[in-house]
Amino acid sequence: MHSDLYSTLSRIDRKTLLLTLHNKANNFSISSIESINKALDQVESDSSIKTLITTGTGKFYSTGLDLKFIANSPRKITDRFLPDHYHPLLKRVLTMPCWTVAAVNGYSIAAGMTFALAHDYVLVQKNFGWMCMNEIDLPSPMPAGMSAILRCKLLDPSLLRDVLLSGKKLRNGAFIYGEPTENVVDSSASLAETLEEKCGKTMRSIKSELYYEVIDRLNLKDSVPLYDIVRGKL
């Protein structure tokens, strides 16, 4: 099973795998995304897998982009990071050929939130799991692919407004995915048992059609000025 500095893939049972992110605050860089993709390669190579659960460690699910990586990389790398690395990861999770469950154990911020929302289901740890989008505070424009996921998954217009325009924190499952749980990984595993019978060979193609508008936005190759954003130049 895949395991490295950033993530570890383990088996819950013969049909369910758990991907644990465990590099500090689980920020996204080229290296961390390569790690996740290696794990997803293993998931997709095993047709017996019906559900993938992702989670973090400690108080972090993911706090978004790795700002240290962005600050220390040249513009030609950072301004292409979203369209060339992060958005393809979101697209891949969104269209996985099995069920996906985000077991949000702690803070899930900005790119961490949209990564979680790219899953089929999101479960939240009671008293610890919360989500927010902090682009309004950075300040940063909202990338098209990330905003498309938010519009698709947060269907309440007032909630979407508050999340994007005021940076509202969604605490204790205060959104469409139900009540928080005492043990988010165990609850995700229980959910997986109820889903496995409906994991068919056409799941990826159905997801691709279901989310085609989001995928179109994620496929945009426009550069995003992260180089200037992290330097406060916008």
Describe this structure in words.
With 234 residues, this protein is α/β, with parallel strands linked by helices. The chain is 41% helix and 17% strand. It has eleven helices and nine strands. The chain has one domain (7-229): 2-enoyl-CoA Hydratase, Chain A, domain 1, CATH 3.90.226. It has helices at 30-45, 67-71, 75-78, 81-94, 111-117, 144-153, 157-165, 184-195, 203-210, 212-218, 226-229, and strands spanning 7-13, 16-21, 51-55, 60-62, 99-104, 107-109, 121-124, 130-132, 170-171.
| Strand residue percentage | 15-25%
* Major β-sheet profile: 5 strands, mixed
CATH superfamily: 2-enoyl-CoA Hydratase, Chain A, domain 1
Rg computed from alpha carbons, rounded to a whole number of angstroms: 17 Å
Question: How many domains, as an integer?
Answer: 1
CATH topology description: 2-enoyl-CoA Hydratase, Chain A, domain 1
The termini sit apart by 43 Å
Number of distinct beta strands: 9
Large-scale geometry: globular
Question: Reading side by side through the largest sheet, how are the strands ordered?
Answer: 1-2-3-5-7
Give the class from helix and strand content and strand pairing.
alpha/beta
Helix content: 40-55%
The CATH class: Alpha Beta
CATH architecture: Alpha-Beta Complex
Q: What do the pLDDT scores average to?
A: 92
Count up the helices: 11
